Amino acid sequence: MRHTKTDRRGGRRSSNRARLGAALMAAGGLLVLSALSLFLYNDMEDRRADASATRIAGALEERIEAGEASPAEASETDAADGSGGGETISIDGETYIGLLRIPALSLALPVMREWSYDKLKIAPCRYSGSIADDTMVIAAHNYRRHFGSIRLLPYGSEVRFTDAAGSTSVYAVAELETLEAHDIEGMSASGYDLTLFTCTYNGAARLAVRCDRAAGED
After folding, report:
1. Confidence class of residue 190 from pLDDT cuts 50, 70 and 90?
2. Model's pTM, two decimal places?
3. Is 187 helix (H, G, I), strand (E, B) or coil?
4. Which of 15, 75, 97, 111 has its CA at 20 to 30 Å from residue 31's CA atom?
5. Torsions phi, psi for 192 (to 5 deg)
6. What pLDDT is recorded for position 97?
C-alpha cells in the first residue's frame, strides 16, 4: 500500500516537533545548569567574604586595642573630598580606618581606607568623607555578611564606628533610600552624618542607609 502525501507530511511534522522538543529540553537544561552554577558561585563568594571580613575584623580589633594605629599621609581621595588622612592600621597589605558594628544584624566589619571593586570583595570601604566631618559614606557588596541585610534595619537601629585610634562614634538609622546607580552626588551630599550603601540584587540601583549621630553624641 502506497503512503499518501498527507501521511508523509504528517510524519515530517511529527519529526520536527520531536526535534524542537528535544532542543527546548536541552536549552532548559542549560538554563537550569547556568542558574545552579551562578548560585554556587555566589554562595562561594559569600562564604569567602564572610571568612575574610571576620578574620580581619578580629585582627583589627586587637590592634586597635593595642594602640597600633599610625598617622596616614593624605591620599588623592582625601584631597578630593577634604577629609584628611586620619589614622590607619595595615593588615595583609591593605589599609583600614576602623571597625563598623551593626548590633541588630550581628555584624562587625573592617572598613578599608580607599575603595575599589577588588577591595570591596574583601571588606567594606570608605567611599568618601570622614567621621570627623560627619560626611562618611561607606560602601560594601551585598554579600550576606557584608551589607546584604542592611535593607532590614529598622529606624533607630544603632550603628557604631570605632576608628583606628580607638574612638567610637554612635549613630542611629534615620532613613532608607533607593538611588539611581550613578547618582554620586545624591549618595555623598545627603546631609546625614553617616551613610552605608550597597547595590540592589539586580544591580540597577543603590540602597542607602542614612544615619545621624545618636542623642548625646557630639
Report:
1. confident
2. 0.76
3. helix
4. 15
5. -90, 160
6. 96
Q: Which residue has the higher pLDDT, 72 or 67?
A: 67
111 forms bridges with which residues in the sheet? Answer: 98
Q: Where are the domains of the chain?
A: 46-213
Q: Are strands 94-102 and 158-163 parallel, antiparallel or unpaired?
A: antiparallel
For the chain, give the mean pLDDT: 82
Alpha helices in 66-157 (DSSP H): 76-81, 117-120
Q: Which three cell numbers stand for residue 172?
A: 542611629
The whole-angstrom separation of Cα 206 and Cα 150 is 12
- SS (HEC) of the chain: CCCCHHHHHHHHHHHHHHHHHHHHHHHHHHHHHHHHHHHHHHHHHHHHHHHHHHHHHHHHHHHHHCCCCEECCCCHHHHHHCCCCCEEEEECCEEEEEEEEEHHHCEEEEEECCCCHHHHCCCCEEEECCCCCCCEEEECCCCCCCCCCHHHCCCCCEEEEEECCCCEEEEEEEEEEEEECCCHHHHHCCCCCEEEEEECCCCCEEEEEEEEECCCCC
Query: Could you give the CA distance from residue 133 to residue 176 in angstroms, rounded to a whole number?
Result: 21
Number of H helices, E strands in the chain: 4, 10
> What is the CATH T-level fold of the domain 46-213, as seen in this structure?
Sortase; Chain: A; (2.40.260)
Show the CA angle centred on residue 207, arms to residues 204 and 208, nearest 5°: 145
End-to-end CA distance of the chain: 100
| Residue (of 196, 200, 146) closest to 171 by Cα position | 196
